[in-house]
Specification:
- The chain has 658 residues and is mostly beta strands.
- The chain has a single domain, classed as Maltoporin, Chain A (Beta Barrel), CATH 2.40.170.
- Helix content is 4%, strand content 57%.
- It has 4 helices and 40 strands.
- The strands form 7 sheets. The chain has a 22-stranded antiparallel beta barrel.
């Protein structure tokens, strides 16, 4: 290892030592599991071993009244959900760009290969059992592209043999309407689930004024079918089919006036079909895991603006159509070495083909990419509560099609992960170091985004070195975790403004350094009262002329969350929570000097009142009515330059289970 590795570990140790006094009673490792009401977790094939986890109660999650995955992202420590100029909502963990986070549905990757990210607002909440969030890189088995963390959506299975159905509906400001249906039952050895939902909004209000936000409408419908059964004793087979369709507007960047992007997504359709299996082999010394999936995504972008959206497109007009077809294959083997260790081997490959036309009835361009990862990971547990994990891997990619652009060279990069931990009573101390790369997506290399970006086929992979030191522990009714981390991102990809234009280009920065410290605390003060506190401080800087003195784009100085909820099993309930985003630098094409603008810190408060009637023990219904207000104090908080979040929004709804 280089001297910088040891220096980084020393800095992390120095940062976390002041927390030693409280951390001997601490909890929560780098994984958060969210459990939704009435559901329990089913197994997921090929999931990497988790060093520890914490559960946010089903009551706390239900207080979010989620319609899509975007409504739950802020529950994860060191995370925020931000909206970009394309109208997409992305999850950022520890201030890292959204392409450093991978999202999975029942083990199937949801990040679109064309762009290496996914719009959380396009992922419905239908049939979700829990959400497991992982920060950092606890295991190379998470797959390629996971640098800052991952989010795993695990559909539920029903406990018991009786069928169960839940129906919910809500109304809110700006023409907001939501409705959902979930049904679970068993049939022989199978646990079956079917569900669907539909949501719509006409607009959301601007903070302070309450005026309608231009082009902020959205509509989406979704359906999910799933079957799960035990195989080979303790193994599990999962089959999944899901699809969703919708359209939405893209609110323009307010500081650009008539030069802003006026887009709509008149078509957004996605179909996902896949299966996974995890099962023991022979006498149980070996485990097999496998995943196979197909993913089809179709999208249209209409950039003609409000004067053209109601008219039929004319041949040759700017109008982007895109079709993504992706195949995923993953295979893993684990050899158990008694009670003291294991050795795991995993191979995964992804083939993606993107076909697009930039004008109506114009020529179509084809792009394709192979992405493959091979990983070996071993874990050993000697006596004394010690545990050692060592992982090594190799990632490589090729681009057999590049449209009308010069082809990029294929990329390859090694991967390494080291972790040492020790358990003492209910506490755990760990230190970790890792290296992994992220290859540029097809869009970063070749897309002009309808004139908004200048392509850069010469982009190089990003390489991350991450060092982490933490203490975790569990109390009887509380959990606390502390972690210090230090990240070096070599050749980090950021967008820069092109002088004299309203265009951007993605380029490789020399190096981005990000030290940080995070604390997450949960406490069940009473069987009906839960408290959550989270705080993360960071300082991201870009190296220039040998010094780290230039701010990095869109990485906040700190992230915080506070939440307290009270919910009786029968009767009234109340909750309030606040999310704070620290000051940060955001891209601004109107700033000719730096291409950045400093955005102030902002806080958003949400509140909720409810009443629950649970009559299941009498053969009756489980019913809850609620009223909620988002952005209670109508605060103006910008996601990015010229892109404010919604103002105060009222809503109410009813949920019935039987």
């Amino acid at each position: 290892m280089s001297l910088r590795i040891f220096a980084a570990a020393g800095l992390a140790l120095a940062a976390v030592l002041p927390l030693q006094a409280v951390a001997d009673t601490a909890a929560v490792d780098s994984t958060v599991t969210t459990v939704l009401p009435e559901l329990v977790v089913s197994g997921e094939a090929a999931a990497p071993p988790v060093p520890g986890h914490a559960r946010i109660s089903e009551v706390e999650v239900s207080l979010q009244d989620p319609a899509t995955l975007a409504d739950l992202g802020a529950l994860l420590p060191s995370a925020r959900v931000s909206t970009n100029s394309r109208g997409d909502r992305h999850l950022m963990i520890r201030g890292a760009p959204e392409r450093h986070v991978q999202t999975f549905l029942d083990g199937i990757p949801l990040n679109l290969p064309w762009d290496e990210r996914t719009d959380l607002e396009s992922i419905p909440i239908t049939g979700v059992g829990r959400i497991e969030g992982r920060r950092g890189l606890p295991s190379l088995l998470d797959g390629p592209g996971v640098l800052a963390g991952s989010v795993r959506i695990l559909p539920p299975r029903r406990v018991g043999d009786q069928p169960y159905t839940r129906v919910n509906a809500s109304l809110g400001d700006g023409g907001q309407v939501r409705a959902g249906l979930l049904h679970q039952r068993t049939s022989g050895d199978w646990n079956l689930l079917g569900g669907g939902n539909w949501s719509r909004r006409d607009e959301w209000p601007l903070p302070e004024s309450g005026d309608p936000r231009f082009n902020s409408d959205a509509e989406q419908g979704a359906i999910l079918l799933r079957g799960s059964r035990a195989v080979a004793g303790t193994g599990r087979l999962n089959l999944l089919a899901s699809g969703w369709s919708g359209e939405k507007g893209v609110p323009p960047e307010m500081h650009l006036g008539e030069d802003a992007r006026f887009w709509r997504y008149p078509v957004r359709k996605r179909a996902l079909l896949g299966g996974s299996v995890a099962m023991p082999l022979g006498d149980g010394d070996w485990d097999l895991s496998a995943m196979l999936a197909a993913d089809i995504f179709r999208q249209e972008i209409d950039p003609r603006g409000p004067d053209g959206w109601d008219a039929d497109p004319v041949d040759g007009e700017d109008y982007e159509t895109g079709l993504n077809r992706t195949s995923h294959v993953q295979l893993g083997l684990t050899r158990w070495l008694g009670q003291t260790g294991r050795v795991s081997f995993q191979g995964s490959t992804r083939y993606a083909h993107h076909q697009e036309s930039l004008v109506w009835n114009g020529p179509e361009l084809g792009y394709a990419q192979w992405l493959t990862a091979l990983v070996a990971e071993g874990e050993y547990q000697p006596s004394g509560g010690w545990k050692v994990r060592v992982g090594a891997g190799y990632d490589f990619t090729s681009t057999p099609q590049s449209g009308d652009k010069p082809a990029s060279e294929g990329f390859d990069a090694p991967a390494l992960n080291l972790r040492l931990s020790r358990e003492v009573d209910e506490a755990e101390f760990y230190v970790a170091a890792s290296r992994r790369s992220r290859f540029p997506s097809l869009r970063e290399l070749y897309s002009g985004a309808l004139g908004k970006f200048v392509p850069n086929p010469d982009l190089r992979p990003e390489q991350q070195d991450l060092y982490e030191l933490g203490l975790t522990a569990d109390g009887q009714a509380w959990r606390l975790s502390t972690a210090a981390f230090l990240q070096y991102l070599h050749d980090g990809i950021e967008k820069v403004a092109i002088s004299g234009t309203n265009q951007f280009q993605r380029v490789n920065r020399t190096e981005i350094r990000l030290p940080g410290l995070e604390v997450a605390f949960t406490w069940r003060a009473h069987p009906e009262v839960d408290l959550t506190l989270q705080h993360t401080v960071m300082s991201a800087r870009v190296q220039e002329n040998g010094n780290y003195d230039r701010p990095a784009e869109d990485r906040p100085d700190y992230l915080s969350r506070f939440g307290i909820s009270w919910q009786s099993f029968n009767g009234p309930g109340a909750a309030i929570d606040a999310s704070v985003v620290g000051a940060r630098w955001s891209a601004d094409s109107t700033n000719a000097d730096t291409g950045l603008r400093r955005l102030p810190a902002g806080v958003t408060w949400n509140g909720r009142l409810s009443w629950r009637w649970d009559r299941r023990d009498q053969g009756g219904l489980n019913t809850e009515a609620h009223l909620r207000v988002d952005n209670l104090f109508d605060q103006w908080v910008d996601y990015q330059t010229g892109l404010p979040g919604p103002g105060r929004v009222f809503s109410g709804g009813l949920s019935v289970g039987f």
